[in-house]
Specification:
With 465 residues, the chain is an alpha+beta fold. The protein is built from 18 helices and eleven strands. Strand 1 (13-21) and strand 2 (29-34) form a beta hairpin. The longest helix has 16 residues, at 373-388.
C-alpha cells in the first residue's frame, strides 16, 4: 500500500496542469499550478473550486477516460486504475483509496492524462493534462488558478450534451421550452450568481483556494470573533459557500454602517413617536386591550399615514399600521404590556432622546430578537439582500431568502422546499420593522422596495451587530 504523502506543507516543486471538461464546445478549461504532494481527496476539492461545481455528487479519478473503451494490445486489455473516496471502497475490490495517493505520483510527464469524473449520473469528465513543473516560489499558494474560460455547467443539466441543448434553448426565445428552462436556470443558479456561460472570476476562485490552505498565522483566530455572515457561510454546503462568499464581497458589507443624526431621527420616527407618546409613566389601554381611539387617530395623523388609509382610523383593531407598529415595538424590545398598560422597557427609557442610539438598537434587535432559528436565518438573509441593494421587488427578496434558507438546510418535515407562504411568514416581523423605518419605499408593503443608502447602512449595522 502506498504511503500517503503529508499534506502539512508544500513540496519543492509546483505542477502545472490543464483541466478541460471533455466534450465542451466552446471549451470549458482551467490552467492550474498545484502542489504535487496534495492527495487526490484534496485535489478533488481544488477542482471543485477551480471549475465551479457545488460538490453535490460522487466523484472518482481514473488513469483512462471512463467513457472510452480500451483497446487490446497483444490480446491484453490493461485494467484501468480508479481512485475513489473511502466511503466508495466497499463497492469494489479493485478501487484504490484517493486519500493514499498524491497528484505527483499519478500525473507525471510519462503518465499521460488523468481523468476526474464528477456526478456519475451526468458524467462530467475532466481531462487533467501535465504541462510542466516549476520551482516553488517563497510563500507560493499550494493551488492557484492561472487562466481559464467559461463557468462550470449547471448542476444536473444532463451531462455535456444536455448542457449544450440547454444553452441552445436559452438562446432561442421561440424554443418551446424557453420560458420553463429560463425559470429552472434562475432557480438552479440561485440569486448569488447571475447565470452567464462565459463568466469566470479568477480572483474569486483564488480567494477560495487560499481559504483551503490558510497561512499558519491564520489558524489561531478567536472563535468568538466570527461574524454573522461568517456563521451563515460556514453552515452552508462547501460548494455554495464559494458562491455565497462571492456575493458577500459584491454586497460591499464593509460600506457605511452609520447614518447622520438627522437621518437616524427621520428613520426611527414611528418608533420614537410611540415610545415618547407612551412616556415614562406608561399608557392605559382600553378595556378590550387596545390603544385609546384618540391615540390611534393621533398616530395616523402625525406619522402621515392617514392620507393613505380608508376609514376613520381611530380603532387600533381596524387600523393596521398602528396595530403593527405597536406589535413591532413589543417584539423589538421597546415596550411591554403589563396589566392593561403599555410601559417602556429600560432600553426605551434610555433612548427617548437618542435617535442614533435608537437606530442602532433597532438594527441589533432586527438581527437578533427571534423566537426560532429559522426566523433568525430568514431575517439575516433579508438584511443581507437589503445591504446589497440589488433587489427591486418583494418577490425578488422572497426568492433570494428562500434559496438561502434551502442552502442552510431548512425544509418541511417531509424534506420538501419551503413554500413561499412559509418564507413570507418567517419574514413578517423584520419586514414590518423595515417598513416602519422607511427602508422600503412603500409603507404599506406593495412592490416598490428599492433600497436607498440609509437603508443599506441600517442592514450593514444589523449584520455587524
Amino acid at each position: 500500500m502506498t504511503v500517503r504523502a503529508a499534506d502539512e506543507g508544500p513540496g519543492s516543486m509546483l505542477l502545472r496542469l490543464k483541466v478541460s471538461i471533455v466534450g465542451s464546445e466552446p471549451a470549458i478549461w482551467r490552467l492550474l499550478e498545484v502542489d504535487p504532494s496534495l492527495t487526490l481527496d484534496t485535489v478533488h476539492e481544488v477542482l471543485q473550486a477551480a471549475v465551479g461545481w457545488r460538490d453535490y455528487h460522487l466523484h472518482s479519478f481514473t488513469d483512462t477516460d471512463p467513457h472510452v473503451r480500451l483497446r487490446a494490445v497483444n490480446g491484453i486489455v490493461r485494467e484501468p486504475r480508479r481512485w475513489v473516496p473511502l466511503d466508495l471502497l466497499a463497492d469494489s475490490d479493485d478501487d484504490l483509496p484517493e486519500t493514499d495517493w498524491t497528484l505527483g505520483q499519478i500525473l507525471t510527464p510519462e503518465s499521460g492524462p488523468l481523468f476526474y469524473e464528477y456526478d456519475f449520473g451526468d458524467g462530467w469528465i475532466h481531462r487533467l493534462e501535465f504541462t510542466g513543473t516549476l520551482p516553488t516560489p517563497a510563500n507560493a499558494p499550494r493551488a492557484r488558478l492561472l487562466a481559464g474560460a467559461r463557468r462550470a455547467p449547471l448542476e444536473d443539466s444532463g451531462g455535456i450534451d444536455g448542457y449544450h441543448d440547454l444553452l441552445d434553448a436559452l438562446a432561442e426565445p421561440g424554443h418551446e421550452d424557453h420560458k420553463n428552462l429560463q425559470a429552472w436556470v434562475a432557480w438552479t443558479a440561485g440569486p448569488w450568481q447571475e447565470f452567464d456561460p462565459e463568466q469566470l472570476d479568477i480572483k474569486a476562485v483564488n480567494n477560495e483556494l487560499a481559504l483551503m490552505f490558510p497561512a499558519p498565522s491564520a489558524n489561531g483566530h478567536d472563535p468568538g470573533s466570527e461574524s454573522l455572515t461568517d456563521e451563515l457561510t460556514n453552515r452552508m454546503p462547501p460548494g455554495l459557500r464559494r458562491e455565497f462568499r462571492s456575493y458577500l464581497r459584491a454586497a460591499d458589507l464593509d460600506g457605511p454602517a452609520t447614518v447622520e443624526a438627522d437621518v437616524a431621527k427621520a428613520m426611527t420616527t414611528p418608533y420614537l413617536w410611540l415610545i415618547r407618546r407612551i412616556g415614562p409613566e406608561g399608557m392605559s389601554l382600553t378595556t378590550a386591550g387596545w390603544l385609546p381611539p384618540a391615540v390611534v387617530r393621533e398616530a395616523m395623523t402625525e406619522l402621515g399615514w392617514a392620507k393613505d388609509w380608508i376609514g376613520k382610523a381611530n380603532r387600533e383593531d381596524q387600523t393596521l399600521p398602528v396595530l403593527q407598529l405597536r406589535e413591532s415595538a413589543q417584539r423589538l424590545g421597546l415596550i411591554r404590556k403589563i396589566k392593561g398598560r403599555l410601559v417602556l422597557t429600560s432600553a426605551a427609557r434610555r433612548l427617548l432622546d437618542d435617535p442614533p442610539g435608537l437606530w442602532l438598537f433597532l438594527a441589533r434587535a432586527v438581527a437578533h430578537r427571534h423566537r426560532h432559528d429559522s426566523a433568525r436565518d430568514a431575517a439575516l438573509l433579508l438584511l443581507l439582500e437589503v445591504a446589497a441593494g440589488t433587489r427591486t421587488g418583494w418577490t425578488d427578496y422572497l426568492e433570494a431568502v428562500s434559496f438561502g434558507l434551502g442552502a442552510l438546510g431548512w425544509s418541511t418535515r417531509t424534506g420538501a422546499e419551503l413554500e413561499t407562504s412559509t418564507v413570507q411568514a418567517l419574514l413578517a416581523d423584520p419586514r414590518e420593522a423595515l417598513l416602519n423605518l422607511g427602508i422600503f419605499e412603500d409603507r404599506f408593503g406593495l412592490e416598490a422596495t428599492t433600497v436607498k443608502a440609509p437603508g443599506q447602512a441600517f442592514a450593514r449595522a444589523a449584520l455587524h451587530a
